[in-house]
Structures are given as C-alpha cells and as structure tokens.
Amino acid sequence: MNRAELEAAPPGVVRQAIREKRWQGVTKRLALGYHQANVTIVPKALAFDFMRFCFGNPKALPLLDVCEPGNPCPPRAAPQADLRTDVGGYLILRRGKPVERVDTLVPYWRDDHVAFLTGCNLSLDRVMLESGIPLPHLVDEAAFPAQYRSSIPCVPAGPFAGPLVVSLRPVDNERVVPLIELTSRFPLSHGAPVHIGDPAQIGIPDLSQVDWGRRNVVGAGQTPMFWACGITVQAVALASGIEEIIVHAPGNMFVTDMLVRELSAAAASPSPGAR
Amino acid sequence: MNRAELEAAPPGVVRQAIREKRWQGVTKRLALGYHQANVTIVPKALAFDFMRFCFGNPKALPLLDVCEPGNPCPPRAAPQADLRTDVGGYLILRRGKPVERVDTLVPYWRDDHVAFLTGCNLSLDRVMLESGIPLPHLVDEAAFPAQYRSSIPCVPAGPFAGPLVVSLRPVDNERVVPLIELTSRFPLSHGAPVHIGDPAQIGIPDLSQVDWGRRNVVGAGQTPMFWACGITVQAVALASGIEEIIVHAPGNMFVTDMLVRELSAAAASPSPGAR
Question: What interface predicted TM-score (ipTM) does this complex get?
Fold first, then answer.
C-alpha cells in the first residue's frame, strides 16, 4: 500500500493495514482528519500516578482515552480496536532502559496492564494542509518533525518526573500569529506552542542535534516554533527509571475513530458524557 | 457576615470565613466569577477508578484538580487551601450509607485519602447575572437549584456505577437557545444541558419530588432545562455501595482560585501545562 491510498481511508482500514503489516511506516498523513494518539501502557500499580501526570501536563499529554485494566480496547477512541496489534511497533522500557522493540504486544500483554491514549500533532495534518501551512513533513515524503528534550520540567506525579519534550516546526514569520491562533483551538493535539523563537531559552543549544525524529531546517524568514510533544513520556521513563512502560515506536501512532473537528470545541467533553 | 460582603470577596477571603465558621450557608453567589467545586475524597485503592469515572462522565464530573495521595491541598485550584477545613460541611458515606455529617475533616483525614475537585454550576452565577438570566437561586435568597436522579446511566468505571443526577433550571422559552449556546462554552461547569423539555423522558415522573436541593417551579412560558450535576457522585456511592467516600455537604462547595473566564476557552489545558 502507499501513503496516498491510506490518506483518505477511514481509521478502521488504516488500522487493519497496520495490523496485517501491509503498512509499516510512520502514520503521518494517514486517515486525515482523525485523531492520532500516543500509546502508553503501564502496570496498574502506576496507572493512577500516570493519569495524574497526564492531568498535570495537559499540553504534552492531553488524554484522549484510558482503557480498563487488562483490556487492550480503548472504549471511547476506537471501540473495535486492539492496542496489542493495531500499532506498527512498540518499545518496551524497563527501569529506565529501552529493552526491546516489538511488532506485536500479544505475547507481552498482562492482566495488570493499563493503556492510555494521548493526543498527537500529526492529528492536525489535515488542518495544516487545508490551511496551506507548508510544514516540512507534509511537503517532503522523507521528512518528519524533530523533537528535543527541553529544560522545562514537567509537573511531577508519583515516580513520573523529567523534562518536557518539544517538537519543532519551522514557520514563515508571517504565519506565526495565525498558527498560534489556529493550534490554540486544538488543545487535544497539544494546543498552542509552549515557546517560539530562540531555542536556547528552553535549553536547546543546537537545533542540529535532534533527540527524536528528523532535523527540520529553519530557513531565512522563518521562526522556530515549539509545541509540547507526547514523546515526553519516553524522556520521563528514561529520566526517572520507571519500572515498566510500553510506548508506540516513534512516528507509529495509533489511529483513532475520533474526528478532530468534532472535538476541538468541546475539549473537556470529548464524548457526550453520560448520554 | 452576609452574602453581599462575600460576593465580591476574593476566594481566599471566602475560604477563611468558611474555615473560621463565620460563613456556614450555601456558597451560591460567593466569590463571583471563580470556579466552585464539588469535593470527593476516596481511599487511594479507589482513586484510579474514580479518576477514570470522572474521565468517562465529563459532563457530570469535569475534573478541576486532583490532590496527591494524603495531601489535602489542591495544587492547581488553590495551592494555599486545605480541603480538610475549607468547606462548610462534609458527608461521610460508607458502604453506600451516609454515616455522618461533620464540620471538619481534620480528625478523619488519613494518609491514603485522595481528594478530587470537579466543576459546579454555581461557578456560572456571575455569567448568569451579567447575562441577565433570572435563575431562581440568583433572584430569591431562599431558593437553590433542584436536583433529581435521572434514568440516564453513567459510564461505569470499576465499582463506580449508577444514575446521572441532573439539576433543573426553569428558563423562559426565548432564552433556551441562547442559554445552550452560553453554557456550552463552559465545559468545566457542566457545559450544555443533557436534556430540555419533558422530564419523563429522562426518568423524572414528578418535578415536585426533589431528590436534592429545593423545588424550582416551572412557570407558564418556561422550559425545564436539565444539566449534569456533581451530586452524581453521591447517587453513585449510594447505588453501588462504595467502601468509603467523603463529599462536601450539599450546596457547601469548595471555592477555588481559578477564574471561570480564563478557563472557558482552554478547557483541556486549564494550566499552562509544564510552563
């Protein structure tokens, strides 16, 4: 399959292609218009602390869904999906070290695992395309956003503590204000940037030293804009030696059934509540 | 002290008056413009399930803050406050029965208690006054909203399961649409109504049989409008026999330092995140 086929496909078709290994690349531009999600799986003993960590750091970790303990199905985000198989790759980290990259979680899943889904900037690919914002990863097939550890500390919760990771987008100067206005309307996809301009002010001495993703060059007449990023979970797991944490492989997001446009206005009530 | 003095007072002054028992009534119209909150305290063993219950039922239980286990201070909502003393009264429920009403939680607080704050419709008193919406409890000193158990089930989480409680406001017919528009902009204060019109459709056979609060008569030319209500926690504790749960006494809300107007637009990111 090629990316163009999956751009206009509904989320269930994209997840099936991923589950059957017919798609193994990053998920940028896939199922355009639907929320893509960071996946974090922790043992139940850490689940309350991790949920508080999401609540305390909503720009990095806007919570889209949380599963019942032992159940790999996200009830709100994609009630037909299985988080053990519907992601292109997973990283298993133990005591602050990455120990394995695997293609499926079926042999690893336990009854005490709790899965969380948090928002992702790739969810805005359609908004950016429709708004004519030429972000590098939307223009160049090989490009991907660049992510950096910043000097901004997360609000800690239990054992979860560490630096905020930010994603860089180089933006033409005249688009900086409109892009702040635009992204602030999508709090479930990281909302407004946490910083614009000089990277050194948030502890990034050299933009060429990328921590995750690929380098995005900031051209003449452009401003570096930095958004909070879901990879923060990995940075925190590494920094604080979390006993066990499983995340999606970088760029291999989980594609949800949740429409970005339906949720932007009612961020705190992504479902109609009890109805 | 009288209500008029505390209407324009900042939240810290209102909390001090409550702590020193100089104010012992309901908190309607106090510290106008600041979020008032439902208080729920559960043992740590139930905290993750309760937090998931809030996430699954955001219209009834929009989460404003969650405390660290054993710490009665809400870090985001009022970092100088103490939830053991700064509420006018508390109800202790055990195994689905109300067992005691107390004025302070100091003798009852344990290291494994976890406190949650969720949004409340009294937070919108100032918005309603400024918008000229003559809700009964804002016009008549003795009046208070009426609440009913509905037939709408909450989305369950662990042991938390039961009916959604709704609050009634009788509204002049021509204000129904504007009031839906207005309240939908405040998801942290229950957002848009869950039902308008015939109460029987949501399992309320007789509006004169109030479950909590005081009767509000629906006059000629008025429509009954129903919003999700934080008292849902009590109804659920009673219905499902939760081991231990402590809530504020009805109408005795916790007054936070959070401005309603600052949060309405950025509901999912009430704090600036990691900054």
Answer: 0.90
